[in-house]
UniProtKB/TrEMBL annotation:
It holds the Pfam family Topoisom_I. Releases the supercoiling and torsional tension of DNA introduced during the DNA replication and transcription by transiently cleaving and rejoining one strand of the DNA duplex. Introduces a single-strand break via transesterification at the specific target site 5'-[CT]CCTTp site in duplex DNA. The scissile phosphodiester is attacked by the catalytic tyrosine of the enzyme, resulting in the formation of a DNA-(3'-phosphotyrosyl)-enzyme intermediate and the expulsion of a 5'-OH DNA strand. The free DNA strand then undergoes passage around the unbroken strand thus removing DNA supercoils. The active site is at Y343 (o-(3'-phospho-dna)-tyrosine intermediate). It is an enzyme of class 5 (isomerase). Keywords: Coiled coil, DNA-binding, Isomerase, Topoisomerase. PROSITE patterns: TOPO_IB_1, TOPO_IB_2. The keyword Cell division does not apply. Residues 1-357 form the DNA topoisomerase I eukaryotic-type domain. It catalyses: ATP-independent breakage of single-stranded DNA, followed by passage and rejoining. One of its GO terms (cellular component) is nucleolus. Its EC number is 5.6.2.1. Residues 263-331 form a coiled coil. This is DNA topoisomerase I.
Length: 384
DNA sequence: GTTCACGACTCAGAAAAATCGCT
DNA sequence: GAGCGATTTTTCTGAGTCGTGAA
């Protein structure tokens, strides 16, 4: 913690380049690149070892808007779409596995169920010096508590030490299996002691070509967005439709547990908004008194029309502020961006925008439009 | 076959920068 | 239209996933 990182020099850097391509000029006179390679199986352009974490390799690769990255992004979503036609069988298989006599098979079934239902990450083994975080396969006994009425309480630190807290009702066989897996174990012991990510992924590959645990997160996120958009979009103006989109986006972020820290000035901002609302309401009250007097033709003599107009304007302003405040509170700890960038098939959003005449710029920023260039010409009828 | 290290890629929130919207 | 605080977008780089190949 708190180390200065030394400068990276050309002789740290390996360049990956086509056999006949000209080698980029070394920017520091008298020095040279560590190595020039011609690896056409990789997508990286340059790499070097991190001076502090010796095991860590840093890469330079093409930007997100490149057709190369776009292609692999598209393949990711196509794989997730393929899961759609396999998911019925996969679910049937793990339900059967819940009561398997073979404990490894039973653990695989329950773990797959968690990954499908709760969008948990796979959970690779980690070195001791890394943060104490877990995923599905590395869940500890104390991370899951049986709460009665078939409810399981999950409580653990996931990727980036983000807390995952969720209580869910599960099928009785799952509940019983968890009790069984916990039996005769101590805190700190693995809940799934017969399992790791390679065993789990090897099993998933038997069910669908190239299937791995992470595909379920993409599948669940994109499926949820597509489903909610199609169920909840009603006639209305663009702002209302964008609201529907944000609501669906939020549900996805909750499923994926994408969080953000509450800004330091949050409470100050809220009280400021409240003050403003109070002020406006006091003003509205005055306006109503004025209106009353004007109707009775008492001074101060003001035009009825103008007062009524002002009342309408002020009421609308108050309503908007209250709505904004509600949204602010609602999204205080939820990060919508991560799922939009990494988990939601952009073709869902593009097709929805086309169907409902929402400008795509309302959904995607400039860089996202560039990143998702490959998805822009999708058919309006596209469904995930 | 199994374990293990590691290489190459995707995904994560925080911080920084740019933009918005109000006075 | 300047000045400001809030909000949104972009950048940054560490933290995961997953495959491969050597021991």
């Amino acid at each position: 913690m708190g180390k200065l990182k030394r400068r990276i020099c050309p002789n740290d850097v390996t360049i990956n380049i086509g056999k006949d391509a000209p080698v980029p000029e070394c920017p520091i006179p008298g020095e040279s690149w560590k190595e020039i390679t011609h690896d056409d199986t990789g997508t990286w352009l340059a790499k070097w070892g991190d001076p502090i974490k010796s095991k860590l390799i840093k890469y330079v690769s093409l930007g997100a808007s490149s057709s190369w990255k776009g292609q692999s992004d598209k393949e990711k979503y196509e794989k997730a779409r393929m899961l759609k036609s396999y998911i019925g069988n996969i679910r049937a298989a793990y339900i059967k596995g819940f009561t398997s006599k073979d404990i490894t098979k039973q653990q695989i079934a329950v773990a797959t169920y968690f990954i499908d239902k709760l969008a948990l990450r796979a959970g690779n083994e980690k070195d001791d010096e890394e943060a104490d975080t877990v995923g599905c396969c590395t869940l500890k006994v104390e991370n899951v508590t049986a709460e009665g009425h078939n409810k399981l309480k999950f409580d653990f630190l996931g990727k980036d030490s983000i807390k995952y807290e969720n209580t869910v009702e599960v099928e009785l066989p799952v509940y019983n299996a968890i009790l069984k897996f916990q039996k005769d174990k101590r805190p700190g012991d693995d809940l799934f002691d017969k399992l790791d990510t390679s065993i789990l992924n090897a099993h998933l590959k038997e069910l669908m070509p190239n299937l791995t645990a992470k595909v379920f997160r993409t599948f669940n996120a994109s499926f949820t967005l597509d489903d909610m958009l199609n169920k909840e979009t009603k006639d209305g103006d663009v702002a209302q439709k964008v609201g529907v989109y944000q609501h669906a986006n939020k549900q996805v972020a909750i499923i994926c547990n994408h969080q953000r820290s509450v800004s330091k000035s949050y409470s100050a901002q809220i009280s400021k908004l409240n003050e403003k609302i109070d002020e406006l309401q006091a003003y509205l009250k005055e306006l109503k008194i004025d209106l009353d007097r004007a109707r009775k033709e008492k001074p101060p003599l003001k035009s009825l029309d103008r007062i009524e107009k002002k009342i309408a304007q002020t009421s609308a302003k108050i309503e908007k502020m209250q709505r904004d405040m509600h949204t602010k509170e609602d999204l205080k700890t939820v990060a919508l961006g991560t799922s939009k960038i990494n988990y939601l098939d952009p073709r869902i959003s593009v097709a929805w925008c086309k169907r409902h005449e929402v400008p795509i710029e309302k959904i995607f920023s400039k860089t996202l439009l560039e990143k998702f260039a490959w998805a822009m010409d999708v058919d309006p009828d596209f469904r995930f």
